[in-house]
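Journal club prep — side note

Before the paper discussion, L.F. wants everyone to see what a predicted structure for a comparable chain looks like in token form. Sequence:
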Amino acid sequence: MDEILELLTNDARMTAEEIAKLTGKKVESVKKTIKAYETNGTIVKYKALIDPEMVHESNRFVRALIEVSVAPQKNVGFDAIAERIYSFPEVTSCYLLSGAYDLLIVVEGENIQTVSNFVAAKLSSMDHVRGTTTHFLLKKYKEDGQVLKKKKKGTRLNISY
């Protein structure tokens, strides 16, 4: 991967000036490269990674990972059914997998019941969906290579004699 992309992947807040210093390139060249990546769709979006436990409203939604087994459609494979699934507003991510299941989707809802209703009423009833397995996300420890909560150092008092 291009070193500018690697740096932005690690920290999207980096300025062109900081990237230029680290890469030894000229600032204008870095700006031009970034603009080209944004224009051609290589850089799709800049995103903040937020630790939900640090936000007081973090209990306002639940997230579930749902494995979906589907029957691929003739001449379009998995793409058409994946597109139908990721079009639902509850679905935040959708991936094609190898293994026992074909798709992995990430779904968010206000509570467990909302997600369960999505699976029962919308997802499971779709043509070509053969089965699902739902895993509710209980806690995040690390996301996108970033540890979300640092270990606390021991709180034991030192004993001296």
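L.F.'s comment for the group: The chain has two domains: 3-40, 53-139. Keep this in mind when we get to the figures.
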